[in-house]
Structures are given as structure tokens and as C-alpha cells.
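The data are quoted verbatim here:
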Amino acid sequence: MKKNWLGLAILLVAVTSLAQENRYDVGLGISEVFSRTSSGNNTTLSPTTSPGFWATGRVRFTAHSGISLTYGETTNSQKFFSSPFTYRIQGRVSEFGGAYVFSFHESARLEPFLFGGAAALVFNPNNTTLNDVSATIPAVRQTKPALGYGGGADYRVHGQWLAVRIQYRGLVYKAPDFGVQNLFTGAYGHLAEPSVGVVVKF
């Protein structure tokens, strides 16, 4: 009988501990998306800076480790210079990503974290111009794999369930060419996304 009670007590402690470590959160925020200029094959790609937004969900499976899924979106212009022409392809860039999240410290208010993972960037062309004149360019949608990394911190503003998140997210990917031969650079691009948002924890 004592062994049964002891086993039950150990089980309750384990379940309670697991419940404390397994926490979930969902968040929504805005960002400013900066893209690096890249060159290759006598072509230079200079994407424009643009505002964006993101939505994310995270599940923590230990006190320090978790997995997050993120969706992000921005609308910008991919500007290609291939002498003597300048091509401008405006459209939506969507991000579907997943990452491992490491929370290395947690206090009553502050929880800093680092993350790394992979994503898919989907470039959806819309309006196109050639030398700043509206023109039909046979640009097609492209999906590019990317490596994601970054870090940030959650600052609780209401009890244990509501926090403000400030973070930096970086993405490294192969520059798009939209299936147009003259736009191929063979270079790598980089997105830098400083952002702020609101997170609900439960």
C-alpha cells in the first residue's frame, strides 16, 4: 500500500513538473524588412525596404527548449539591374518557417531567447516594369528554401499570460530570378527583420 502511494506521489510530481515546463504561446507583430543587395552573372539585385507582419505559435517541451512555427508577409519590389536594363518586379513575399527556440533565462518579467531553423520564402510577382515603364515581364512565382536565425525577448506586461515581444529575425536564401534568364544572379540574399509584437501565453 505504501509503495502504491509512493508511486502515485512520484507520478503526480512528474505530471505537475511536465505541465509547468510545457507552455504554449501565440503571437502577432509588425516588422520592417531590410534586404541585402546581391550581385552575380553581371546582374545586381537590390530589393526595397518594406513593412511586414508575422504570426507565430510556440510549444515548449522543457524549461528551456521549444519549437515555433512562423508565418510572415511583406510586399516589396525586387529591382534588377542588368545593363542596359532595369527590371522592377513588385509583389508579395510570404514566409513559412519552423525553428528550435532556446530560452536561456527566465525571470518574473523577462524571458530572452535565441532560435534557429528553416523556412520557405515564396515570391509572388505582381506588377512589373522595365526601365521604369510598365511592361509585361514573364515572371513566375518562386519558392526558395532559407535558413533562419535570430533572438529576442518577451517582457510580461500583464500577469503571466500577456507579453510584448521584441526580436530580430534573419533569413539567408538563394536570390530569386522569377524564371527570367536575364535576372539570374546565382547569389545569396539576406532578409533582416527587426520587429515588435504581442504574445499570449497559456
Remarks:
- The chain has one helix and eleven strands.
